[in-house]
Specification:
The complex is a heterodimer of chains A (192) and B (568). Chain A has 192 residues and is mainly alpha-helical. Chain A contains seven helices and six strands, in the order ααββαββαααββα. The chains are: A mainly alpha (192), B mainly alpha (568).
């Protein structure tokens, strides 16, 4: 009985592996490449024939003239898209609280705010993937005065730009309203 | 807040809607009735039997069924282990990733995927080739889910049949699960995910010059095909390290909703399939209701705790939710709380937020759901067979109270069934507690903790609950890629998987062999609200009695200390 079971196991393992491990993913790749090539290849954004990013993957922004994204724990320096990760700091971890306090002061300083101004929480906490492409609407708005100054553009114009880039709840209900930082910054560069 | 509640209600409504059509389809598949999909599936099934030499009409007793299952899974483990250590010499590896050199990591990973756990002590994008993801992980995502489903079906057959030793044919159950259920559903789901932005390609990683002129390398791969079965099979192993928080695995709120539905679709349909198969759908609904009641309690608690957040962070003066550490903006508090509850109600273990960074009470619920045996819908198949074991226990306790022989679905529940049920509950529970005890008193166990104080104990408890419960999610601050953790969690995964499957199959064999007891005035009805409530009580009481002391030293005390502003 055991010999028979081993033989049948082996045969079935091979056949089902071919079905589910080769035919199935290859079929999906074929169909996806045919009908959704843009998405299947990473929703990449090109500029002058060069890839400048993916609309789904966040990038590091520290220049005052760009909107900044969320703090990232991916890789050593953040936004490493070959090493996605959260900080995993627990709610009573000293390091978390110190980090969040420091980031809050940094955000206030960068944007010329008083030291007791309320700061959007997503700007001072690391995302789950370390690659979060989005920030909340508040987090975009709070950065407008700094960018207006750095680029010498009116705040009004920037407010309109942010408003144009708000992604609402999907199907009117799902998820949270948000702004894609890379797309917003590309639009910012194109603003003349 | 109103949108938060709305999204959760939509999720629950959609889940209930799926239950009836999918449940009756599953019942048809395993009772050999005609389905609309037969015209494709039948010829494929015949082809599989022809080349493997499987005799479709052969029936197995429980021991042969269990033996076939164990051998099949063991061979799968060996195959995956070989693939992991030799991937460097194999094709579909554009990043030229080497074979995994640490034997205990390869062993842990092979055990993890075969036992439907998908505990990951490695980071996907830096460690495994596309071939390993497909031919190793995707395959086991299908096979381990099919294994779980087969056991549940065999247990149901034990109740459907009488005066026989036969509980079905393992090869046939596996094959039919895959051809009729997992493959077609995965095909549909993976294409929808791809449309929303989940990638599916074999390119090497893409080099990007960012807007600020920095270099960024973006990991690629055949993600959509794996993502679909990862959810539908309640496997949960991420293609990438960040799992379903990664934008390429879960790019939009819609994919988030679909992935959560995919996790619970089959587990939630199985009670209905069970009812259909034993020809009394009310029996199925009684089980389903107990699961739903528990789910709503758990979801409400997680959401409340995450929404209330972390008072220490609130004091810094912020706008927006205070518990955003380890969460993605697109999912927010609601989408993250719901996902965490769903993935640990089931034995899935995919995560879209960092469980380690949740509020203590918010992180307690995922842990507790796993400790309760993942019976709140639960894993594919494993949820139903574990809940049925709790149901046997419930009728047994009622039988003791009224002084009659307990019965369930026309079968007497006697000492053999009770012994096996108790084994299926005690084996995983003691594995979790003993494993955690060993790890928390040894230097090897505690030296790899990221967080300290009570949260450190939570990390350890979670690791043993997750691996024993074959969940696979983690308080990921614990750096578990060490000889000690790789070995001890491998053992936990094997005990937690087969230590429940084998007693469940033994019960199936014993029940099939019994005569049917006609319903009499003395029969305690198991198809009404009273029974559902009783079952909820049994599940909670067993869990509380076993785990309350450990939980009070971890998340419960941490919640109190957090509210008092204490840090570690």
């Amino acid at each position: 009985m055991i010999k028979n079971a081993i033989l049948k196991s082996l045969m079935l393992l091979i056949v089902l592996s071919v079905f589910t491990g080769l035919l199935y993913p290859l079929t999906i790749t074929g169909i996806a490449q045919l009908i959704f090539p843009h998405q299947a290849n990473g929703s990449l954004i090109y500029k002058d024939g060069q890839v400048i990013g993916s609309s789904l993957i966040g990038q590091q922004f520290s220049d005052p003239k760009y909107f900044h994204g969320r703090p990232s724990s991916a890789g050593e320096t953040g936004y490493d898209a070959t090493s996605s990760s959260a900080s995993n700091l627990g709610p009573t971890n000293k390091l978390l609280i110190e980090k969040v306090k420091k980031l809050a002061q940094q955000v206030r300083k960068e944007n010329g705010l008083k030291s007791n101004t309320a700061v959007p929480s997503d700007l001072i906490t690391s995302s789950a993937s370390g690659l979060d492409p989005d920030i909340s609407i508040d987090a975009a708005l709070i950065q407008i005065p700094r960018i207006a100054k750095a680029r010498n553009i009116s705040e009004e114009k920037l407010k309109n730009l942010v408003n144009e880039h708000i992604a609402g709840r999907q199907l009117g209900i799902l998820g949270e309203p948000r702004v894609n930082v890379l797309e917003l910054n590309i639009a910012l560069d194109n603003l003349k | 807040m109103i949108y938060d509640i709305l999204q959760m209600l939509i999720f629950i409504c959609l889940l209930v809607i799926i239950t009836i059509p999918l449940g009756s389809y599953i019942a048809k598949v395993f009772t050999n009735q005609h389905t609309f999909f037969d015209f494709v599936a039948k010829p494929i099934e015949k082809f599989v039997y022809k080349i493997t030499g499987i005799d479709e009409s052969h029936e197995m007793n429980w021991k042969e069924y269990a033996l076939s299952l164990v051998i099949f899974n063991f061979l799968g483990m060996i195959f995956l282990f070989i693939l992991l250590v030799s991937q460097g010499k194999l094709p579909l590896n554009p990043q030229k990733l080497p074979g995994i050199s640490s034997w205990h990591l390869a062993l842990n990973t092979a055990v993890s995927f075969v036992t439907n756990t998908n505990w990951q002590a490695y980071n996907g994008e830096t460690t495994v080739s596309y071939l390993t993801q497909m031919l190793g992980f995707t395959v086991q995502n299908f096979l381990s889910a099919a294994t779980g489903l087969s056991v549940a079906i065999a247990l149901i057959r034990g109740m459907m049949r009488h005066s026989t030793k036969d509980i079905g044919n393992f090869w046939v159950d596996i094959t039919r699960s895959i051809i009729w259920i997992f493959l077609p559903l995965s095909l549909i789901l993976s294409l929808i995910l791809a449309q929303q932005g989940v990638i599916q390609n074999f390119s090497s990683y893409i080099r990007v010059h960012t807007l600020e002129g920095l270099k960024q390398v973006i990991a690629m791969g055949p993600v959509a095909s794996q993502e679909a079965i990862k959810m539908l099979g309640t496997n949960g192993g991420g293609f990438f390290g960040a799992n379903s928080a990664h934008p390429f695995e879960n790019p939009t709120p819609l994919t988030n909703m679909l992935e959560m539905l995919a996790i619970l679709a089959i587990p939630a349909s199985l009670p209905y399939a069970f009812g259909k198969m034993v020809k009394n759908t009310r029996q199925g609904w009684a089980i389903f209701s107990a699961m739903l009641i528990l789910f709503v309690i758990m979801l409400g608690t997680t959401y409340y705790s995450e929404k209330t957040g972390n008072p220490i962070i609130s004091h810094i003066n912020i706008t927006g939710p205070s518990a955003m550490e380890g969460k993605e903006v697109r999912f927010g508090i609601a989408g993250s709380s719901l996902f965490s509850t769903v993935t640990t109600a089931a034995s899935c273990g995919a995560v879209n937020s960092s469980l380690d960074s949740m509020t203590p009470l918010g992180g307690l619920i995922p842990m507790l759901q796993i400790m309760l045996g993942e019976v709140i819908f639960g894993g594919v198949g494993s949820g139903l067979y574990s809940m049925l074991i709790d149901a046997f226990l419930a009728v047994f306790i009622v039988g003791l109270m009224v002084g009659r022989t307990p019965e369930y679905i026309g079968k007497k529940i006697e000492s053999y069934e009770m012994k096996m049920s108790i084994l299926a509950i005690i084996i995983p529970a003691s594995t979790i507690l003993i494993g955690s005890a060993i790890a928390s008193v040894t230097k090897t166990g505690t030296s790899v903790l990221l967080n300290h104080g009570p949260h450190g104990l939570s990390e350890i408890l979670y690791a043993f609950a997750s691996t024993t419960g074959n969940n696979g999610s983690a308080f990921a601050g614990l750096n578990s890629n060490t000889l000690f953790y790789n070995l001890i969690t491998s053992i936990a995964m094997i005990i937690g998987r087969f230590g429940v499957i084998i007693p469940a199959l033994a019960i199936a064999g014993s029940l099939a062999n019994k005569k049917v007891v006609p319903v009499s005035v003395g029969t305690f009805p198991t198809d009404n609200v009273l029974f559902s409530v009783l079952l909820v009580g049994i599940v909670l009481i067993i869990g509380a009695l076993t785990f309350f002391p450990a939980l009070s030293l971890g998340p419960i005390i941490e919640q109190l200390l957090m509210n008092a502003g204490k840090l570690f």
